[in-house]
Amino acid sequence: MKGRTIVLDHLNGVEAAALLVDGKLDDLLIDNEDAPRPGAIFRAICDRPLKGQGGMMLRLPDGETAFLRQGKGLRPGQPLLVQVTGYADDGKAVPVTDRVLFKSRYAIVTPGKPGLNISRQITDEEERDRLHGIAHSVHEGDHGLILRSACFAAPDDEIAEDISAMLDMADAIMADVDGIAEALTEGDGPHVLAWRDWTAKADVVTDAGAFENLGVLDQIDALGSPLVPLDAGTMYVEPTRALVAVDVNTGGDTSPAAALKANLAASRALPRALRLRGLGGQISVDFAPMSKAHRKQVEQSLRAAFKACPIETSLVGWTPMGLFELQRKRERLPVTQTLPKGV
């Protein structure tokens, strides 16, 4: 199977979406009903400030506790609109922000941040002028607007309708501040997220049993193993309570050339391995032993690989012991927690 294919199906009744590139699983989204979805918007109630940290603990409608990093000027009992930014670690509060965004396939509405911006990936001046015209025809009020790269060559009416829908939603929700704790939006499920975020040209398959027929189930099963085969060498990706440990090996060949080859292969494969396994937080990579002169090549390869990854990742750098550290946003739960029983 050549090209990009988006597969929309279910795993034991749970909604899921897979992105295949030349038949190889490149991204995977599985719904989780046990935790608030990232992107969900709540009217939360301020509970108590965290002294020394500047944050505020919040109450959500179903009894969950949320944490807002910047709580300056807030008081206990005050209602506040917040949006879930990721999943919580075991026993910790749900991370939220008060900078609410309304995101769809073509548009992102940014309340409180007026202005119009067009994705820098769209470089054609005529296309940018067209999009400016569409936006100005429907964009009114104080909300900011960002037009996404998916707008390129999209029909005028589809873009305009999408912008209008997001603006209307923003108006309605931003005016709904006062009251008790309440869920205002649920956040998008895997099928909507696939349509919204996997915007590059792709075939879409929605047939019943598509996961099995296209070999997706077998590739999901393989995610239960820490082993990630490489073109040169092997890589093991193993989550612990404190961090994600990544170990790169060359096999029998311990020459400098083999080490560099394996490390470059690992750096290219790491974003996909983390994305498919839903892993984030602190990540520590133990590359195969190499000279300091080769470290720069590996770091450049890492930066290029993560630049294309949709999940925010900071490359921290080398430790005195020669490990490479990264910090990755927890936008997903580990795949071992989201897979329905029986899969």
Task: Write structural notes for this entry.
The strands form four sheets. A six-stranded mixed β-sheet has the order 15-16-17-18-20-19, with helices on one face. A five-stranded mixed beta barrel has the order 4-5-6-8-7. Strands 3-2-1-14 form a four-stranded mixed β-sheet, sandwiched between helices. The protein is globular. The mean pLDDT is 94. Strand 9 (102-103) and strand 10 form a beta hairpin. It is of the alpha+beta class and 343 residues long. The chain contains eight helices and 20 strands. The longest helix is centred in the last third of the chain and has 22 residues, at 256-277. Helix 1 (125-138) crosses helix 2 and helix 6 (256-277) packs parallel to helix 7 (292-307).
- The number of E-state strands comes to 20
Across the major sheet, the strand order is 15-16-17-18-20-19
- Which structural class do you get from the secondary structure elements? alpha+beta
Mean pLDDT: 94
Described by strand count, sense and barrel closure, the largest sheet is: 6 strands, mixed
Low-confidence stretches: none
Spell the H/E element sequence.
EEEEEEEEEEEHEHEHEHHEEEHEHEEH
- Number of helical segments? 8
Separation of termini? 24 Å
Taking all Cα atoms into account, the compactness measure Rg is: 22 Å
Shape: globular
